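Bit of a strange request maybe. I'm writing a small parser for structure token strings and I need a real example to test against, not something I typed by hand. Could someone generate the tokens for this chain?
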Amino acid sequence: MAFSVLYWVNFCSGTKKLSQKSESAVKSDHVLKFIYDPELSHVEGRVQASMRDRSYHVTLTLGENDTVIDSKCDCVNGQDKCHHKASLLLYGYKNVSKTDVRASWIQHPKSRPPKKTMTMEELFPPPPKLATYR
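Reply from user aminoacidic:
Good idea to test on real output. This should exercise your parser:
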């Protein structure tokens, strides 16, 4: 999974109002900007205030075990838990797909010999010549 819902669940645990407000904000398209860097485990974005013509800058640092280890928001509750941070986490879960994350490819083991390259003549040998009778 590209972006786990557990970040949002762990962040909102114990506060039903926080989860409801964040769900409402995502449903109302209040997340204006979302940037996710999986290599740095960093999320950044802008979330519109509920009833005002204003938006807040939010940054989150994701840790192991699906937790948020550091977070900041420009709102009044920005140092504590706020629904702007929770909205960004929920938005990430709903909108970040596997194709948004950098892919890594499995290399063939070195012990396996490379496949033999064949020429066109080997793939398509000329038809045998037919004898001509006079």
